[in-house]
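[stage:ingest] chain + small molecule (iron/sulfur cluster)
[stage:ingest] validated
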Amino acid sequence: MPREARTTIDRPHRAFPAPALRSGESWRVLAACVGADPEAFYADDGAVQELARGICGRCPVRTICLADALDAPRTGKHGIWGGTTAMERANLTAGERADARGRAQVALTALRMCETPTVA
Ligand code: SF4
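[stage:predict] done
[stage:export] tokens:
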């Protein structure tokens, strides 16, 4: 099995398509939340969270943002990442099993969340 394919199975959410970035450029420079009030992304108020999720809904790096949050549970423990709340991310990974099928299921669920805009 090619090494890339093995990596994708080990960390399937890394298979998400990535936008074009210049060499050395961080995906964060393309984030739709650049310049937005960071408090909105860490608010407890559901209405405020929806405002943040609305920004995520039109973000070109949403899949990468979510993948990073899933990869780094401590970093992604709080706040809105990739249009998901901490609870949603916890639910995504709670049923994750050690086998490839379980990891693939997490990846597919996360991908569906990224493909679904949070605002009309
Ligand atoms: S998905 Fe949301 S939190 Fe992540 S970079 Fe885009 S706007 Fe920011």
